[in-house]
Amino acid sequence: MSDSPAKPAANSGSGSAAAFGKPPESPTASKDVTSPGDLQQGPADEPDHPHLEIDHDEGAEDNYDADSAYVSLDGSSRTGSITSSITNYVYENGRRYHAYRSGQYVLPNDEDEQERLDLQHHIWLLLLHGSLYTAPLNVPDESDSGSEYRILDLGCGTGIWAMDIADQHPRASVFGVDLSPIQPEWVPGNCRFHVDDYEDEWTYRPDEAFDYIHGRALGGTVADWGRFYRQVRTHLKPGGYCEMQEYDAWIFSDDDSFDRAPWTKEWVTKLDDASKMFGKQINVANRHKQWMIDAGFEDVQEKVIRQLHMQMSVASHTPALFTRVHSYTERQCQILIEGVKREFRNRDLRLITIYRFISGRSPGPPPPEL
User: Does the first or last residue of the chain, that is N or C, have fewer Cβ atoms within 10 Å of its Cβ?
Assistant: First the structure.
């Protein structure tokens, strides 16, 4: 069996605070910043009186477990193995980031982030009333002795979605791909994980095509979505389904809440700008349906759900992009994060985001000219 998909690392900066080994110390208190505009003063001009409290997590970087249920695939030339080059993580601004293809992905992989991903998984389940997908899959049951049903989970994170669908469909073979080996050691027997980068050229053989390819919250991870969907379609069986589960990296309101939330407005605007300059725009959820259609998928469906925004994503999405692109200091990032979180907690503000579930059926591999 060949390896999972992957893309050569671009030379994106890893940030001025990046270093291998122990993470840097966090500042003990914020400065007197009353509006987002005050952050532009720079560190030398910040006032001396505390205004916003910053929450600090102690011991978050300790005791990381590198064990995972990874397999070395026969014939693989690119799939990563569990080596020091993969687990020698990068630390930036008090957060831990992946080592393999360092700098390609702007969200951390530390324990705080893993907890956020697992909690977010349950939120996605609530939105779908307990379902793991919206595509009309025809997964064989245990009594079916037909051909292998293959599922690929791109950007699998902690592996929780892949493990759940493997448990739900024991006749399926489930493969998860991620840059970080942060999946648990004990997983269902029909579930395997690979360290790889799905932006690279996919090297699966034709007899390894998938019945279902799934991705969740991949915004900000892909530079060329047209190429991405061509590869997805190439490696789906005829009649196989692709599904993307995404949320808009933007905030909306039905009243004037967004206009009354200056920290949030500053945050989403600069987050989107930074991701564009980084080369992988994060606010792209509303474009997936058309991208699938353009790639030749059939019966493309989109399910849209509006939801009050939750503050858990702010601390994960902010540090890398704001320090690498906008040259924020770690303290400036933390002050911005706390200002946004405070507005999200404000019951007078109804700040909304949109979750999207987009699925399409592949009629077969795309023609060479597509």
Answer: C
pLDDT of the residue at 280:
97
Cα distance between residue 209 and residue 239, in whole Å: 11
Beta-carbon contacts of 44 under 8 Å, excluding residues fewer than 6 positions away, are none
Average pLDDT over residues 87-103: 91
User: What Cα–Cα distance (Å) separates residue 2 from each residue in 33, 117, 175, 236, 365?
Assistant: 53, 28, 12, 15, 18
* Cα(105)–Cα(51) distance, integer angstroms: 32
Please tell me the distance from the alpha carbon of residue 150 to that of residue 101, in angstroms, as a whole number: 26
Strand runs labelled E in the chain? 19-20, 90-92, 95-97, 149-154, 172-178, 191-195, 210-216, 236-247, 298-308, 352-361
pTM across the whole model = 0.79
Cβ atoms of residues 51 and 34 within 8 Å? yes
The 8-class DSSP code of residue 286 comes to G
Look-up of token digits 């999972």: 4
Cα angle vertex 166, ends 124, 114, to 5°? 50
C-alpha of 337 from chain center: 19
How does DSSP classify residue 41? G
Taking the C-alpha atoms of residue 204 and residue 342, their distance in angstroms, rounded to an integer, is 47
Q: Which amino acid is at 59?
A: G
Nearest by Cα to 357 from 308, 286, 299, 266: 286
- Of 97, 66, 96, whose CA–CA distance to 80 is shortest? 66
CA–CA dist 241, 219 (Å, integer)? 19
Q: Does residue 60 contact residue 111 with C-beta atoms inside 8 Å?
A: yes
For β-strands 19-20 and 236-247, DSSP reports them as unpaired
Identify the bridge partners of residue 243 per DSSP, sorted by sequence position. 214, 359
Per-residue pLDDT tens over the stretch 28-65: 334 456 677 767 544 434 433 233 333 333 333 333 33
Tell which wins on pLDDT, 243 or 82. 243
